[in-house]
Design brief:
Elements: H1 2-21, H2 41-48, H3 51-59, H4 75-81, H5 85-93, H6 108-114, H7 118-126, H8 141-147, H9 151-159, H10 174-180, H11 184-191, H12 207-213, H13 217-224, H14 240-246, H15 251-264
Protein backbone atom coordinates (compact mmCIF):
# COMPACT_ATOMS: atom_id res chain seq x y z
CA UNK A 1 0.00 0.00 0.00
CA UNK A 2 2.91 2.33 0.70
CA UNK A 3 3.29 5.13 3.25
CA UNK A 4 0.78 7.44 1.60
CA UNK A 5 -1.85 4.72 1.14
CA UNK A 6 -1.42 3.61 4.74
CA UNK A 7 -1.78 7.20 5.91
CA UNK A 8 -4.97 7.78 3.90
CA UNK A 9 -6.50 4.53 5.15
CA UNK A 10 -5.73 5.54 8.73
CA UNK A 11 -7.28 8.97 8.09
CA UNK A 12 -10.47 7.38 6.75
CA UNK A 13 -10.75 5.18 9.84
CA UNK A 14 -10.20 8.15 12.12
CA UNK A 15 -12.73 10.25 10.21
CA UNK A 16 -15.34 7.50 10.62
CA UNK A 17 -14.61 7.43 14.35
CA UNK A 18 -14.80 11.23 14.49
CA UNK A 19 -18.21 11.27 12.76
CA UNK A 20 -19.48 8.72 15.24
CA UNK A 21 -18.18 10.64 18.26
CA UNK A 22 -18.24 14.26 17.07
CA UNK A 23 -20.92 15.23 19.59
CA UNK A 24 -19.04 13.57 22.43
CA UNK A 25 -16.29 16.16 22.94
CA UNK A 26 -18.67 18.75 24.35
CA UNK A 27 -17.96 21.48 21.81
CA UNK A 28 -20.90 21.04 19.44
CA UNK A 29 -23.65 22.84 21.38
CA UNK A 30 -22.99 25.87 23.56
CA UNK A 31 -26.39 27.19 24.63
CA UNK A 32 -29.18 25.54 26.58
CA UNK A 33 -32.40 24.17 25.16
CA UNK A 34 -35.16 25.19 27.53
CA UNK A 35 -38.82 24.30 27.86
CA UNK A 36 -40.91 26.73 29.85
CA UNK A 37 -42.84 23.93 31.56
CA UNK A 38 -39.59 22.60 33.04
CA UNK A 39 -38.68 25.93 34.66
CA UNK A 40 -39.49 27.49 37.99
CA UNK A 41 -40.31 31.17 38.33
CA UNK A 42 -36.72 31.98 39.29
CA UNK A 43 -35.37 30.21 36.20
CA UNK A 44 -37.72 32.09 33.89
CA UNK A 45 -36.71 35.37 35.54
CA UNK A 46 -33.02 34.53 35.10
CA UNK A 47 -33.45 33.83 31.39
CA UNK A 48 -35.41 37.06 30.90
CA UNK A 49 -32.91 39.08 32.89
CA UNK A 50 -35.70 40.22 35.21
CA UNK A 51 -34.11 40.91 38.61
CA UNK A 52 -37.40 42.12 40.11
CA UNK A 53 -39.21 38.93 39.15
CA UNK A 54 -36.33 36.91 40.52
CA UNK A 55 -36.59 38.75 43.85
CA UNK A 56 -40.34 38.20 43.89
CA UNK A 57 -39.93 34.45 43.48
CA UNK A 58 -37.56 34.40 46.47
CA UNK A 59 -39.65 36.67 48.72
CA UNK A 60 -42.81 34.68 48.00
CA UNK A 61 -41.00 31.51 48.97
CA UNK A 62 -41.55 29.99 45.55
CA UNK A 63 -37.87 29.41 44.93
CA UNK A 64 -34.48 29.32 46.61
CA UNK A 65 -31.50 30.86 44.79
CA UNK A 66 -30.02 27.39 44.29
CA UNK A 67 -33.14 25.63 43.03
CA UNK A 68 -32.58 23.45 39.97
CA UNK A 69 -34.72 22.71 36.96
CA UNK A 70 -35.24 19.23 35.49
CA UNK A 71 -31.75 19.27 33.98
CA UNK A 72 -30.06 20.35 37.19
CA UNK A 73 -29.59 23.91 35.97
CA UNK A 74 -29.75 26.69 38.52
CA UNK A 75 -30.83 30.27 37.85
CA UNK A 76 -27.11 31.12 37.78
CA UNK A 77 -26.49 28.61 34.98
CA UNK A 78 -29.34 30.01 32.91
CA UNK A 79 -28.39 33.65 33.52
CA UNK A 80 -24.82 32.95 32.40
CA UNK A 81 -25.88 31.02 29.30
CA UNK A 82 -28.22 33.85 28.26
CA UNK A 83 -25.86 36.71 29.07
CA UNK A 84 -27.70 38.30 32.00
CA UNK A 85 -24.92 39.90 34.10
CA UNK A 86 -27.40 41.86 36.23
CA UNK A 87 -29.03 38.63 37.35
CA UNK A 88 -25.64 36.99 37.86
CA UNK A 89 -24.50 39.86 40.08
CA UNK A 90 -27.74 39.71 42.07
CA UNK A 91 -27.53 35.95 42.59
CA UNK A 92 -23.90 36.21 43.66
CA UNK A 93 -24.82 38.96 46.12
CA UNK A 94 -27.45 36.59 47.56
CA UNK A 95 -24.70 34.03 48.20
CA UNK A 96 -25.82 31.47 45.67
CA UNK A 97 -23.53 28.45 45.32
CA UNK A 98 -21.15 29.20 42.46
CA UNK A 99 -19.88 25.73 41.64
CA UNK A 100 -23.06 23.67 41.37
CA UNK A 101 -23.12 21.57 38.20
CA UNK A 102 -25.84 20.81 35.68
CA UNK A 103 -26.67 17.43 34.13
CA UNK A 104 -23.47 17.60 32.05
CA UNK A 105 -21.42 18.47 35.13
CA UNK A 106 -20.94 22.04 33.94
CA UNK A 107 -20.69 24.94 36.35
CA UNK A 108 -22.15 28.35 35.61
CA UNK A 109 -18.60 29.52 34.85
CA UNK A 110 -18.18 26.85 32.20
CA UNK A 111 -21.48 27.92 30.60
CA UNK A 112 -20.50 31.59 30.68
CA UNK A 113 -17.19 30.84 28.95
CA UNK A 114 -18.74 28.36 26.51
CA UNK A 115 -21.38 30.93 25.51
CA UNK A 116 -18.77 33.72 25.40
CA UNK A 117 -20.46 35.80 28.08
CA UNK A 118 -17.33 37.52 29.35
CA UNK A 119 -18.97 39.86 31.87
CA UNK A 120 -20.81 36.98 33.53
CA UNK A 121 -17.62 34.92 33.65
CA UNK A 122 -15.68 37.82 35.17
CA UNK A 123 -18.25 38.29 37.94
CA UNK A 124 -17.99 34.62 38.84
CA UNK A 125 -14.19 34.55 38.82
CA UNK A 126 -13.98 37.69 40.93
CA UNK A 127 -16.20 36.03 43.55
CA UNK A 128 -14.27 32.77 43.74
CA UNK A 129 -15.77 30.42 41.17
CA UNK A 130 -13.56 27.38 40.59
CA UNK A 131 -12.04 27.47 37.06
CA UNK A 132 -10.82 23.86 37.23
CA UNK A 133 -14.07 21.92 37.45
CA UNK A 134 -14.30 19.37 34.63
CA UNK A 135 -17.55 18.62 32.86
CA UNK A 136 -18.65 15.16 31.71
CA UNK A 137 -16.38 15.49 28.67
CA UNK A 138 -13.35 16.28 30.82
CA UNK A 139 -13.32 19.90 29.64
CA UNK A 140 -12.66 22.84 31.93
CA UNK A 141 -13.69 26.43 31.27
CA UNK A 142 -10.24 26.96 29.74
CA UNK A 143 -10.87 24.27 27.12
CA UNK A 144 -13.99 26.15 26.00
CA UNK A 145 -12.14 29.47 25.87
CA UNK A 146 -9.58 27.78 23.63
CA UNK A 147 -12.23 26.23 21.39
CA UNK A 148 -13.72 29.72 20.96
CA UNK A 149 -10.20 31.12 20.44
CA UNK A 150 -11.07 33.72 23.06
CA UNK A 151 -7.60 34.81 24.12
CA UNK A 152 -8.72 37.46 26.60
CA UNK A 153 -10.93 34.96 28.41
CA UNK A 154 -8.18 32.33 28.41
CA UNK A 155 -5.84 34.90 29.92
CA UNK A 156 -8.35 35.80 32.62
CA UNK A 157 -8.94 32.15 33.51
CA UNK A 158 -5.20 31.55 33.81
CA UNK A 159 -4.88 34.65 35.99
CA UNK A 160 -7.49 33.16 38.33
CA UNK A 161 -5.72 29.82 38.63
CA UNK A 162 -6.95 27.73 35.70
CA UNK A 163 -4.72 24.69 35.17
CA UNK A 164 -3.05 24.98 31.77
CA UNK A 165 -2.25 21.24 31.86
CA UNK A 166 -5.78 20.01 32.69
CA UNK A 167 -6.73 17.21 30.30
CA UNK A 168 -9.98 16.50 28.50
CA UNK A 169 -11.28 12.97 27.96
CA UNK A 170 -9.24 12.86 24.77
CA UNK A 171 -6.12 13.67 26.77
CA UNK A 172 -5.89 17.20 25.40
CA UNK A 173 -4.14 19.81 27.47
CA UNK A 174 -4.76 23.44 26.55
CA UNK A 175 -1.92 23.45 24.02
CA UNK A 176 -2.86 20.10 22.49
CA UNK A 177 -6.46 21.23 22.06
CA UNK A 178 -5.44 24.53 20.47
CA UNK A 179 -3.13 22.72 18.04
CA UNK A 180 -5.64 19.97 17.25
CA UNK A 181 -8.39 22.50 16.48
CA UNK A 182 -6.02 24.70 14.46
CA UNK A 183 -6.34 27.78 16.68
CA UNK A 184 -3.11 29.44 15.56
CA UNK A 185 -3.40 32.65 17.57
CA UNK A 186 -4.28 30.69 20.69
CA UNK A 187 -1.25 28.45 20.16
CA UNK A 188 0.98 31.52 20.03
CA UNK A 189 -0.62 32.86 23.22
CA UNK A 190 -0.28 29.57 25.11
CA UNK A 191 3.34 29.07 24.11
CA UNK A 192 4.15 32.29 25.94
CA UNK A 193 2.75 30.68 29.10
CA UNK A 194 5.37 27.90 28.89
CA UNK A 195 3.10 24.83 28.76
CA UNK A 196 4.42 21.28 28.91
CA UNK A 197 5.66 20.58 25.37
CA UNK A 198 6.13 16.87 26.16
CA UNK A 199 2.41 16.36 26.86
CA UNK A 200 0.70 13.70 24.72
CA UNK A 201 -2.95 12.90 24.03
CA UNK A 202 -4.61 9.49 24.33
CA UNK A 203 -3.02 8.44 21.03
CA UNK A 204 0.50 9.40 22.14
CA UNK A 205 0.54 12.51 19.94
CA UNK A 206 2.54 15.57 20.93
CA UNK A 207 1.64 19.08 19.84
CA UNK A 208 4.17 18.81 17.01
CA UNK A 209 2.72 15.51 15.78
CA UNK A 210 -0.80 16.97 15.83
CA UNK A 211 0.31 20.05 13.91
CA UNK A 212 2.13 17.98 11.27
CA UNK A 213 -0.78 15.55 11.02
CA UNK A 214 -3.19 18.46 10.44
CA UNK A 215 -0.91 20.11 7.88
CA UNK A 216 -0.73 23.22 10.09
CA UNK A 217 2.55 24.60 8.79
CA UNK A 218 2.48 27.86 10.74
CA UNK A 219 1.88 25.97 13.99
CA UNK A 220 4.73 23.58 13.19
CA UNK A 221 7.02 26.56 12.69
CA UNK A 222 5.89 28.09 15.99
CA UNK A 223 6.56 24.85 17.86
CA UNK A 224 9.97 24.37 16.27
CA UNK A 225 11.06 27.67 17.81
CA UNK A 226 10.81 25.95 21.19
CA UNK A 227 12.64 23.02 22.72
CA UNK A 228 10.26 20.35 21.43
CA UNK A 229 11.07 16.69 20.77
CA UNK A 230 10.97 16.02 17.02
CA UNK A 231 11.65 12.28 17.42
CA UNK A 232 8.63 11.39 19.55
CA UNK A 233 6.37 8.64 18.14
CA UNK A 234 2.63 8.21 18.64
CA UNK A 235 0.99 4.85 19.40
CA UNK A 236 1.11 4.00 15.68
CA UNK A 237 4.87 4.54 15.65
CA UNK A 238 4.60 7.68 13.53
CA UNK A 239 6.68 10.81 14.12
CA UNK A 240 5.85 14.37 13.12
CA UNK A 241 8.14 13.91 10.11
CA UNK A 242 6.19 10.81 9.03
CA UNK A 243 2.91 12.75 9.08
CA UNK A 244 4.51 15.64 7.22
CA UNK A 245 5.81 13.25 4.56
CA UNK A 246 2.40 11.64 4.08
CA UNK A 247 0.45 14.90 3.97
CA UNK A 248 -0.20 16.70 0.69
CA UNK A 249 -0.21 20.11 2.32
CA UNK A 250 3.24 21.69 1.84
CA UNK A 251 4.70 18.28 2.66
CA UNK A 252 8.23 18.86 1.39
CA UNK A 253 8.72 22.16 3.18
CA UNK A 254 7.17 20.85 6.37
CA UNK A 255 9.28 17.73 6.35
CA UNK A 256 12.47 19.63 5.63
CA UNK A 257 11.87 22.02 8.52
CA UNK A 258 11.33 19.13 10.93
CA UNK A 259 14.38 17.32 9.58
CA UNK A 260 16.44 20.48 9.94
CA UNK A 261 15.46 20.76 13.58
CA UNK A 262 16.24 17.05 14.09
CA UNK A 263 19.78 17.53 12.75
CA UNK A 264 20.35 20.35 15.24
CA UNK A 265 19.11 18.25 18.16
Amino acid sequence: MGVRGSFLAACRRRMATWRKNRDKDGFSNSGYRVRQKDLGMIHKAAIAGDVNKLLESILLGLNDVNDRDKKNRTALHLACAHGRPGVVADLVARKCRLNLTDSENRTALIKAVQCQEAVCASILLEHGADPNVRDMYGNTALHYAIDNENISMAGKLLAYGADIEARSQGGHTSLLLAVNRKKEEMVAFLLKKKPDLTAIDNFGRTALILAARNGSTSVVYQLLQHNIDVFCQDISGWTAEDYAAASKFQATRLRNDIRGRARKA
